[in-house]
Design brief:
The chain is built from 12 helices and 22 strands. It has helices spanning about 5-15, 40, 70-85, 100-110, 125-135, 150-155, 160-165, 180-190, 240-245, 295-300, 335-345, 370-390; strands at about 20-25, 30-35, 50-55, 65-70, 90-95, 115-120, 140-145, 170-175, 195-200, 205-210, 210-215, 215-220, 225-230, 235, 250-255, 255-270, 275-280, 285, 290-295, 305-315, 320-330, 355. The strands form 5 sheets. A 7-stranded mixed beta sheet has the order 6-5-7-8-9-10-11, with helices on both faces. It has a 5-stranded mixed beta sheet with strand order 2-1-3-4-14. About 45% of the residues are buried.
C-alpha cells in the first residue's frame, strides 16, 4: 500500500509548512486523508498553525470526536516513547492509520527519520500478512503497535514463522483495550517484549507504559478517576468548544502551567507505584441494586482455564434491572466458564448469560465493538429468560 502522499502531508504539517492532516478510512481499509485549512480549525489567531493532525476518536464508548493534536504534543509523545523504549527505530504499521495508534507509527517514523513499513490490511489482519510485513523491516531496531485481539490471534497461530516474526521486534506496544494477564504471560514467556500502553486520542495515544508515565506526563487520581496531563495533551475538539471545556483544563503546578485531560476511566496505584486502570467510570452494571464493575468481572473470567478473550456488559432484565452478561472466546463450554467464574468471583459477579464465540466482533481499530457485542448479548439473554425464570426456585414467607 502506498503511503507516500500521506507521509509527505504529515511531514509538512509537523514542520509547520502545511495545513493539519485528517486521516479517514478509505475503501477496503485503505487510508485516505484531507487537509484542514487553518480557518476551519476554529482556534484563536496564531494558534491554528500549531495543529498538525485531526484524529477521530474510535467511537467505541460514545459519539466520535475530532481531536486536535499540535506539533508540540506529537513531538513530546514521540520523544517520550523513544526515551521509554531506549531508542528510535523502524516501525511496522499494523493498525489503521486513521486512528491515533496508527497515526503515531507514522509520526514517530518521521521524527526518527526512518521509513515505516505499511501492512496491507485490505484483506483484514492475518498472521500470514503480519509475518510477511515483519520480514520487510531492515532497521536493526524494530517496533510495532498492536491491540490485544491482534496479539492473541498471532500467538494462537500454529505457524512457527509467526512466533519468529514477533520476536524480531525490539518491543511491541500493546494498547487500545485491557490485556489479560494470561495473554501477557504467554507473550513474555515466548520471548516477546510486550509493553502495555494506556492513553487515548486526547493524549496523542499511549502516554503511560507498563503503568509508568512517559517523560513529561503527569497522572493524577481524583475520586479514583484518572487525569492525564502534560505536553502530550490535545488542544481540544474541532467544532465543539463546550465539550472541550468539559474535558480539558489548565492548572498551575510548581513547574508552571500544565494542561490536563479528564479521562472516563477509574484507576489506582499498585504496590510498586504503577498506574492500574480499573475500568470506565460508566462501565458499571446495576443488578438487583448492587453496583458491579464490568472490568472486575472480566479480570475474574480471564483467570478461568481455557478463556482467551472476554467482554462483559450489562443487559436489561425485567426482575434485576440489569444482568451480567459475557461474550467469551474460549476452549471450554459456557457451563465451564460459569463454573470457573463461580470459583474465583462472588456469586453476584458471575455472568448470568455467557455467549461463546470464535472471535470477538471488533472495530477497524481492533477494539471490541461494544454496540455489536451488547446487542448479541441482549438477544441471548432474552432467549434464555423464560427458561431461567422457570428454573428460579420459589421462596416462601
Amino acid at each position: 500500500m502506498t503511503i507516500e502522499p500521506l507521509l509527505k502531508a504529515l511531514a509538512a504539517a509537523l514542520a509547520g509548512e502545511g495545513p493539519a492532516v485528517q486521516i479517514m478510512a478509505g475503501p477496503a481499509g485503505a487510508a485516505e486523508f484531507k487537509l484542514i485549512p487553518d480557518a476551519e480549525l476554529g482556534l484563536p489567531a496564531g494558534h491554528a498553525a500549531d495543529i498538525a493532525a485531526v484524529v477521530l476518536t474510535s467511537g467505541s464508548t460514545g459519539q466520535p470526536k475530532r481531536t486536535l493534536l499540535s506539533v508540540d504534543a506529537l513531538a513530546a509523545s514521540s520523544m517520550g516513547t523513544a526515551i521509554a523504549l531506549g531508542a528510535e527505530g523502524q516501525w511496522l504499521l499494523a493498525l489503521p492509520a486513521h486512528y491515533v495508534a496508527g497515526l503515531q507509527v507514522l509520526v514517530r517514523s518521521l521524527f526518527a527519520g526512518t521509513r515505516p513499513w505499511v501492512m496491507d490490511l485490505r484483506g483484514g489482519f492475518t498472521a500470514e500478512a503480519f509475518t510477511a510485513s515483519a520480514g520487510e523491516l531492515t532497521d536493526t531496531v524494530r517496533y510495532t503497535s498492536l491491540v490485544p485481539t491482534q496479539l492473541t490471534r498471532l500467538l494462537t497461530d500454529p505457524s512457527a514463522a509467526t512466533l519468529t516474526a514477533l520476536r524480531r521486534f525490539n518491543a511491541i506496544l500493546l494498547g487500545g483495550a485491557p490485556a489479560s494477564p494470561v495473554l501477557l504471560e504467554a507473550a513474555r514467556g515466548a520471548g516477546i517484549n510486550v509493553v502495555t500502553t494506556y492513553g487515548m486520542s486526547e493524549t496523542c495515544g499511549g502516554c503511560v507504559y507498563d503503568g509508568v508515565p512517559l517523560d513529561g506526563v503527569h497522572v493524577a487520581l481524583r475520586d479514583g478517576r484518572i487525569r492525564l496531563g502534560g505536553d502530550v495533551v490535545a488542544a481540544g475538539y474541532l467544532g465543539d468548544p463546550a465539550l472541550t471545556s468539559a474535558a480539558f483544563f489548565d492548572e498551575e503546578l510548581d513547574g508552571g502551567p500544565v494542561r490536563w485531560y479528564q479521562t472516563g476511566d477509574l484507576g489506582e496505584w499498585d504496590g510498586e507505584g504503577r498506574l492500574r486502570v480499573l475500568g470506565r467510570v460508566d462501565d458499571v452494571i446495576i443488578s438487583g441494586g448492587l453496583k458491579i464493575s464490568a472490568a472486575a468481572v472480566e479480570r475474574g473470567l480471564q483467570r478461568v482455564r481455557g478463556v482467551r478473550e472476554v467482554f462483559v456488559g450489562g443487559v436489561d432484565d425485567a426482575e434485576w434491572g440489569q444482568r451480567v452478561a459475557a461474550m467469551v472466546v474460549a476452549s471450554c463450554t459456557p457451563e465451564e466458564v460459569r463454573a470457573g467464574a463461580a470459583a474465583v468471583l462472588e456469586p453476584h459477579l458471575v455472568p448470568k448469560t455467557v455467549v461463546l464465540v470464535p472471535e470477538l466482533p471488533v472495530l477497524s481499530t481492533g477494539k471490541p465493538d461494544r454496540a455489536a457485542i451488547l446487542a448479541r448479548l441482549a438477544d441471548a439473554a432474552a432467549e434464555a429468560a423464560p427458561t431461567q425464570t422457570r428454573a428460579r426456585p420459589r421462596t416462601t414467607s
